[in-house]
UniProtKB/TrEMBL annotation, chains A, B:
It comes from Oleoguttula mirabilis. Residues 116-258 form the GST C-terminal domain. The lineage of its organism: Eukaryota, Fungi, Dikarya, Ascomycota, Pezizomycotina. InterPro entries: Glutathione-S-Trfase_C-like, Glutathione-S-Trfase_C_sf, Glutathione_S-Trfase_N, GST_C, GST_superfamily, Thioredoxin-like_sf. GO terms for molecular function: glutathione transferase activity. This is Glutathione S-transferase. It holds the Pfam family GST_C_3.
Length: 271, 271
């Protein structure tokens, strides 16, 4: 069991279960950050429960035509299991796809602007764009085939990472900076929040991708700080200090980057 | 103005505007199919309005910190403009990101199971997975850099497309088939609908990706038909016959594939 509900969140929540691979942040981290930022308890099944990964595999990676509890199959982890939220109101709901999980949780965890339909869709718009960047960064070390070793696609990875660093990062960063600037007055400060006047999952999702890029491409990111200081300095540091996140990021629950989406191969960084 | 509201859809809709590049199906096609399947009128701005593409560029590709009507900036088309749905209830709402637009429209167009929260998220789960495949197919001809010519990354494209055809297509197709099989009883037939008992945007989105793959990789897809007949024969043909779609697909509004996401380079197909 991870974060405990904070005093301000009195709403009763089901015992959410994050179903993901053990030992890596990966795409599960976007879901973890949402729970941790909201101060809502969840079970990180593969990391916290005995034989938890076999449960994850059973639900998300089985060969059958059902995930579990009468829910349709899952393409791949992460998935979210929500006891009592299934179709009949009793069984569990199982949903997959990172942005789908975030949209589902957004309102329930208080991570979208309240009573604000446009705001909800703007949060999702920004989060989806950050997840697109996440995929592009993954492809810098696996541009040809996800099932092959990096070493077997290294020549292509050098080319791909150069393009992502030189062309794609600035394009995405410029978009996030414009979004911050658009929201500067509403959020009450420079580089504070991406949508509205409090933390949303757009902030946590963009932050995670930036943090991952800092691990993967430390030289590139250091060089970009001047050009994108609202995003890479103000915003990045602001979000890190948010109550639920600050505690989490220094805890043992925050897993180190290793061989997942964000990998540090010095040759793929700026030379 | 495209499809006219059908008799069964008496609900009043705003005059939706699809903001996308002219002349190609691209990612705009997922949004078009949703409107056409629902029989709800929309304006395809770049294709139907005089100087429409400059409106698209102004809203979705400008250098400022706002898209239009007090909405945050857009990373790239497609976007949806909905008059009267903005934050103040008077101005227009502008939202971007294909799955975000589809989720927004799903309930409004009757393209998700009614009064069924789990069903709505299952539709989005399947649609997001189809859009992931769409991106992977795009990368078969642009594995290194989206801004470079295909000819400048042809060696890498040959490797990437081989992996996508041999490993990724069957993985995705198998997932879609399992989803169809899971839903066989509820949908009332083999290979009928992916979620629930009537057409959803999961169906139109998966269908479009399959159709695009048939254009891009005709030999590969022909060979796969036996292995995945529920998906590539029953489902594919069923959806094509849906009332709103059947008419649309033979109309002039259905744009031909050319140099967008789905491209036919014979050398990238099965040899």
């Amino acid at each position: 069991m991870a974060a405990q509900p904070s005093a301000k969140k009195q709403r009763t929540h089901p015992q959410y279960e994050l179903l993901y691979h053990p030992g890596i942040p990966g795409r599960g981290e976007f879901v973890r950050l949402a729970f941790e930022a909201a101060g809502v308890a969840y079970t990180d099944t593969a990391n916290e429960v005995k034989d938890g990964y076999s449960t994850v595999q059973q639900i998300c990676m089985n060969k059958g035509t059902e995930s579990a509890d009468g829910n349709p199959p899952v393409f791949s982890p992460p998935a979210l299991r929500v006891p009592g939220a299934g179709k009949d109101g009793k069984s569990a709901l199982v949903i997959a796809q990172t942005p789908n999980i975030l949209f589902y949780l957004g309102e329930k965890l208080g991570l979208v602007p309240e009573d604000d339909e446009p705001g909800r869709y703007h949060v999702q718009q920004v989060a989806l764009t950050a997840l697109d960047l996440n995929n592009e960064v993954h492809d810098t070390h696996h541009p040809i085939a996800v099932m092959k070793y990096y070493e077997d696609q290294k020549d292509e990875a050098l080319k791909k990472s150069q393009d992502v660093r030189e062309n794609r990062l600035p394009k995405f960063f410029s978009y996030f900076e414009k979004t911050l600037k658009f929201n500067e007055k509403a959020s009450g400060g420079q580089g504070k929040y991406l949508v509205g006047d409090k933390l949303t999952y757009a902030d946590t999702t963009v932050w995670q991708v930036l943090d991952g890029c800092m691990f993967a491409f430390p030289k590139e990111m250091e060089t970009r700080k001047e050009e994108f200081s609202d995003l890479l300095v103000s915003f990045y540091d602001n979000i890190k200090q948010e109550s639920g996140l600050k505690q989490y990021l220094t805890s043992k629950r925050r897993l180190p980057y290793s061989m997942g989406v964000f990998r540090h191969y010095p040759e793929l960084d700026r030379q």
